[in-house]
Amino acid sequence: MARRILFVALALFGAMTPAHGAPPEEFYDLPKVVAVQNRTYYLNHDLTVNLGWLPSDAFNKGYTIGTSYTYYFSDYLGWEVVNANYSFNSETNLKKDLLENFGAAVENVGFGGILDYIVYYFTSNIVYTPLYTKSLLFNKNIVRGEVSFVFGAGGAGFDETGIRALITAGAYLRFFTKEDTSWKFDFRNNVYFEKSLGAVNTISLMVGYSMQLGDPPKAPIMSEELEKK
User: Fold this and answer.
1) Where are the domains of the chain?
2) Domain 34-228 is in which class?
């Protein structure tokens, strides 16, 4: 009798105990909750002052100063109404070296043989901002930013040959210092047209300091939560 009671007790204990290493089935059915945080800083009227570098060709390079104004329709779509820059040209030593060392006078294929360069340029662009970033700088400071892509058109004024049509495309990184100020690091590829040369590419690299005009839009108070199953 005692042996039968012991056997029944062991059988019941074994039935109530899960197999070793196998977690309950409900463990796999638990939903994962992920917090999606809204961006902290918003823009609607953005004014930027730029300093940059504009290499026209192998013989001329320019140092630029300019400004831009951007109006934002939403968090991710804006219109850079105007981006205007003036270029201070500096000749490289290549022309001098060719003449002194090889006796070769340099003449341009296009522009009527003139080694012309850009004096100023202006564009108007669509701004698309699909990425908002939140980074940790030196494992100490949180830096918020965004990545924007731009595409537009305008004109470039040359020293001797006048104004030419210009198409531009590029991207910039923005890093916020406060809710109404930020730094922008801007790269753009500019294409202008010359009848002998066709489409000519020239890049522009700029660093800009941006200021929000007026009060910036307010960020939502709460974060949004999404469930993943």
Assistant:
1) 34-228
2) mainly beta
